[in-house]
Design goal:
By secondary structure, the chain is mainly beta. Helix content is 3%, strand content 44%.
Length: 612
C-alpha cells in the first residue's frame, strides 16, 4: 500500500495510513533538515493516498509502452455490490460473502444461471458513446464442471457476445479476458447504438451453471480485444476514470497530465473511410496506428491529372484547432490541410512526413508537428479566423503544391482526426465513433485533514516542475498550483498571466481578495515544450519567486493569511487547468532564503529541461 510521511506545522511527522511509518518523502535539502511532501509524479505509477483526483469522463494518454491508450477506467457503476446493484431475473440466486482470490470474503456465488430472462444477472450502463469498443473482464471459479457461459451487452447480443467454455477453465480462480482460451468471441463487445452497454450473464446449458464471481470490469479501449488492465473498484455508485501519469513515445515519463474539458466536433476520428475522398480512395485498417492497433486507414491517390488528391470534411466556421496523425506511405513526402473559401485555398499548412518539418503556411494562428513514434506525426493547425466549412486534407507532390498528377501507388496513412472548437492548440485525442464526444477536465486536490497535516500557515516554500506542449499558450489564468480557502480567498497561487500568455505569475491575496504580492517576468517563456521549475517562498513581509535558477523576484510588504485549507495542483478548485504536465510538486514548511530558492530551481544540465 502506498504510504507517505508528511510534516505537520510543528515539524512532527504523520502518516496518512494507520500502519507504522516505513517510508519518508521528506529529506534534507542543501543541508537544512526541513521536512517536505514530495509528489514526484514523473517517477511514480500511482498518486499518493492523500491526493483526490476526479474527471467525469474517459480520456486518452500515452502509456509506458509508448502507445496512445485510454486512461485506466471501469465504466461499471457498481463492481462490488452485485446483490443490490445488479439485476437478477428468474431462478438464479446470488450470494455474497464468498472467499475471494485475495483471501477475503468479497466474492459472490452465482447459483443456477440459465437462459436469458429465466435465470440471468446483468448490469446496464447508459450514456456511453455509441459504437465505442470496450474490454470486458472478470474473475471466475467454476463449480459446475462443464457448460457454456454467455457474456454480452444487456442491450443486444449484436453489440457483444462471448461464449465461455467451462471445460477450458481450471479448478481455481481465473481471470476471464478477451484472450482467455475459454473465450470464443461471437460478436465484439461494444456500446449499442442507443448508448447502452454493461455486462449480461446467462447460459443455455441445460441444468444451469454454478460458479464464483469477482471483480467485474468494463474498460473503454480502442479495441475490444485489447488486454485487460488491473482491476479498478467502482464500489457501489459510479464509473471511475483514473488519473493520467503520461509518457512520451520513447517511453519516458512526463508526469501528471492535467487538461481542460474539450470536445472533438468531428464524428469519426478512428474510422476515416466515411469521409468523402476526392480523386483518391480508402483502404481501411491497413496500418498499425499510434495506438498499437491495426486500425489506421490509407488514403490512396487515383490516376486523375493536375488535380487535388484529398479527403473532405465539414469544418467548424468558428476558431478551432484541427489535428490528425499521419505517416508517410509511398511516393509522397508531403501532406497538407486547408479550408476552401469557394474560390481559393486559405488557412493552410504543408507537412513533410519524411523530415518532421512544417513547410509553407498561410493565414494560421498556430501550427506544429509532433513525433509520436514509428514514423507517425501529429500535425495540427489553429484556424483563428475560420469562416468556411470546407475542410481538406490531402497528399502533395512538393511543398506549397496542392495539385498534381495522381500515382495509384501513392498513399498516406491517417488516424485520429480531431477538431477542437475554441482551442488554440491540440489536446489529447478524444476518440469518436459516429458522434461528437467530449472529455471532462482533470481536477487534483489535497484537502481537509490531508492538507492540514503538512501545510504551515505562517511560512513555507513550494517547488513545482511543469511542462507544456510545444506551441502552447494559456487560455486564461490557468493554475500551476493554488492554495486557497476552499477555492476562494485568501489565495496563494502560481498561475498563467491570462489568455495568450506563456509565462507564470505568483499572486497572493488576503481574506478579502486584496492583492498582497504579484511577482513575474514576462521573459520567462514556457511554451517551447521544455520542463521549467518554479519556486515560491513565503513568510510575512518576505515573498520570493524564482524561475529556472534566475535571480529571485521579491516582495517585502505582503500580509499572509491563516485560513488556507486546500491545495489544487494543475487547476483551481473547479477549472483553470494548465493543459500540460506537473512532473513534481514539493512543499517545505520553512521559508527558504532567496539564494536557496534560486538553487531549488536551477536546471544546470540542459537536457533536464527537455525530459519527456
Amino acid at each position: 500500500m502506498a504510504r507517505k510521511l508528511v510534516s505537520n506545522q510543528d515539524n512532527t511527522s504523520t502518516s496518512s495510513q494507520t500502519e507504522p511509518l516505513t517510508r519518508a518523502v521528506a529529506r534534507p535539502i542543501f543541508g537544512e533538515n526541513v521536512l517536505a511532501i514530495d509528489y514526484n509524479f514523473a517517477d511514480k505509477d500511482y498518486l499518493d493516498d492523500d491526493i483526490t483526483f476526479s474527471r467525469a469522463s474517459n480520456a486518452t494518454q500515452t502509456g509506458s509502452d509508448g502507445y496512445i491508450k485510454f486512461a485506466p477506467n471501469n465504466i461499471l457503476t457498481s463492481s462490488e455490490d452485485i446483490v443490490n446493484d445488479w439485476t437478477q431475473r428468474g431462478s438464479v440466486s446470488v450470494t455474497a460473502g464468498q472467499s475471494d482470490p485475495d483471501g477475503g470474503t468479497t466474492a459472490y456465488l452465482f447459483d443456477g444461471v440459465i437462459g436469458a430472462g429465466l435465470g440471468d444477472v446483468y448490469q446496464n450502463v447508459t450514456g456511453l458513446q455509441a459504437n465505442a469498443p470496450y474490454v470486458v473482464s472478470f474473475y471466475i471459479k467454476k463449480v459446475t464442471a462443464t457448460g457454456t457461459l454467455i457474456v454480452g451487452n444487456p442491450q443486444t447480443s449484436g453489440a457483444g457476445s462471448w461464449n465461455v467454455d467451462f471445460s477450458k477453465i481450471g479448478d481455481g480462480w481465473e481471470r476471464i479476458t478477451p484472450s482467455h482460451p475459454a473465450v470464443t468471441v461471437v460478436n465484439a463487445q461494444k456500446v449499442h447504438t442507443n448508448g447502452g452497454g454493461g455486462m449480461f450473464i446467462y447460459s443455455n446449458t441445460g441444468g444451469g451453471l454454478d460458479f464464483y464471481f469477482w471483480h467485474p470490469q468494463i474498460e473503454m479501449s480502442f479495441s475490444s480485444s485489447d488486454a485487460a488492465n488491473d482491476y479498478i473498484s467502482t464500489g457501489s455508485g459510479s464509473a471511475v476514470h483514473k488519473e493520467r501519469l503520461d509518457f512520451d513515445h520513447l517511453k519516458n515519463p512526463k508526469g501528471l497530465l492535467i487538461e481542460e474539458a474539450r470536445t472533438n466536433s468531428l464524428t469519426q476520428s478512428i474510422d476515416l473511410t466515411g469521409y468523402e475522398s476526392a480523386s483518391s480512395s480508402w483502404l481501411a485498417n491497413a496500418d498499425i496506428s499510434p495506438s498499437g492497433i491495426k486500425d489506421a486507414d490509407r488514403l490512396y491517390e487515383e490516376s486523375d491529372t493536375d488535380i487535388y488528391h484529398r479527403l473532405n470534411y465539414f469544418a467548424s466556421t468558428s476558431a478551432n484547432t484541427l489535428s490528425f496523425y499521419a505517416k508517410k506511405g509511398a511516393v509522397r513526402d508531403w501532406i497538407y490541410t486547408y479550408i476552401y473559401s469557394g474560390s481559393a485555398e486559405v488557412e493552410y499548412a504543408f507537412f513533410n512526413l519524411s523530415t518532421g518539418q512544417v513547410g509553407t503556411t498561410s493565414g494560421l494562428g498556430g501550427y506544429g508537428m509532433e513525433d509520436v513514434g514509428n514514423g507517425w506525426y501529429r500535425c495540427w493547425v489553429y484556424r483563428s479566423t475560420a469562416g468556411y466549412n470546407n475542410g481538406r486534407i490531402g497528399l502533395a507532390e512538393a511543398d506549397n503544391d496542392f495539385r498534381h498528377d495522381g500515382d495509384t501507388s501513392a498513399y498516406v496513412s491517417l488516424w485520429g482526426l480531431q477538431e477542437e472548437v475554441g482551442g488554440s492548440f491540440p489536446t489529447s485525442l478524444v476518440p469518436t465513433y459516429g458522434a461528437t464526444a467530449s472529455r471532462s477536465g482533470d481536477l487534483v486536490s489535497v484537502t481537509n485533514t490531508n492538507f492540514n497535516r503538512f501545510y504551515k500557515q505562517s511560512q513555507g516554500t513550494i517547488v513545482a516542475d511543469v511542462q507544456f506542449p510545444n506551441g502552447w499558450v494559456a487560455n486564461g489564468y490557468s493554475k500551476i498550483w493554488a492554495v486557497t480557502d476552499n477555492g476562494g480567498h485568501p489565495s496563494s497561487r502560481l498561475e498563467l498571466n491570462g489568455a495568450g500568455t506563456d509565462y507564470a505569475v505568483y499572486q497572493l491575496s488576503n481574506n478579502s481578495g486584496t492583492g498582497q504580492a504579484t511577482l513575474h517576468d514576462p521573459n520567462n517563456k514556457m511554451g517551447g515544450g521544455e520542463v521549467t521549475r518554479h519556486a515560491t517562498a513565503f513568510k510575512e513581509n518576505d515573498i520570493s519567486y524564482s524561475f529556472d535558477g534566475e535571480t529571485a523576484l521579491t516582495d517585502t510588504s505582503a500580509t499572509l493569511s491563516n485560513q488556507f485549507d486546500r491545495l489544487d495542483i494543475g487547476s483551481s478548485k473547479t477549472a483553470d487547468q494548465i493543459n500540460g504536465w506537473i512532473r513534481r510538486f514539493r512543499y517545505f514548511n520553512k521559508k527558504k532564503s532567496d539564494s536557496a530558492v534560486e538553487k531549488l530551481t536551477d536546471t544546470s544540465f540542459l537536457l533536464d529541461k527537455f525530459k519527456g
